[in-house]
Amino acid sequence: MVQLRYFEPAPAARPHISCLYSFSTPFAMTDMLRAEVPNLRIFLKGGVTVTRAGERRTYRAPVILLCGPTMNAGTIEMWPDTTLIGASILPAGWHACFGLDASEMTNRFEDCEGIAPVLLKSVLDAMQEASTPEVAIAYLEHALVRLGAQREARQQPFIDAASIWLATGNISQVDNLLAEADLSQRQVERLCHRYFGGSPKRLQRKFRTLRANNALVWNDLTDWRDAAGEDYYDQSHFIRDFKEFIGFTPKQFSNEYRALMRSALVLRRTIQHVHPISLVA
To answer: Are 162 and 191 in contact (CB under 8 A)?
Structure first.
């Protein structure tokens, strides 16, 4: 049977990690990937084929994939007998752990060889020998805490302000972020690319669509207007963004994919989320 579990990060890891998770499937399966925040995914068994922005890549376990922030939907094809351990990386954690601008990895999935520090590769062998997902999760979390201690985000006040702006449904205008951060438009553009992987307007569209997608599941909604709130001009506007960032229209999502997506989103709510964007994305 397919197994998906979420784990809360330890206090020492919370500035850098929003959640950790384990996934395993005994059979091949294909699913949509909605637009995401960065992730580190360690495939211990099996393999995966990922299609993003028209590019299709295949990876065979054991492999460590550094997955940058994504700005549109994609597909993921799991091989039979696949097991992975993952971590959802927060903006400050991306910079602290890997020393990269988020925009360098936007819409990219890359083998960590040549990107990630040696520490992660040394953890891979230990994770493969782990007796339970909890043990493997602990190895990964410890490694990320050590990596995150190497650097501090220099723009933490901006990261905090932008995270709240993206996660809060009643903030819809870029001008709100400019005022809150007390920075020029050019500075905000640069920092959004560095820490979040895209322009403020693109990020605004992405996160409001993710919030609407979550609302459809968590609140058991059937009317698109209830999920969209006041953030969309009309139904066609909502459908266009939903298809771009979630991968299908709201009707397709409700009729065909809702049960699978509901399972993942409901499980995410079983753990505590401290960071503003942790539960949204």
So the answer is: yes
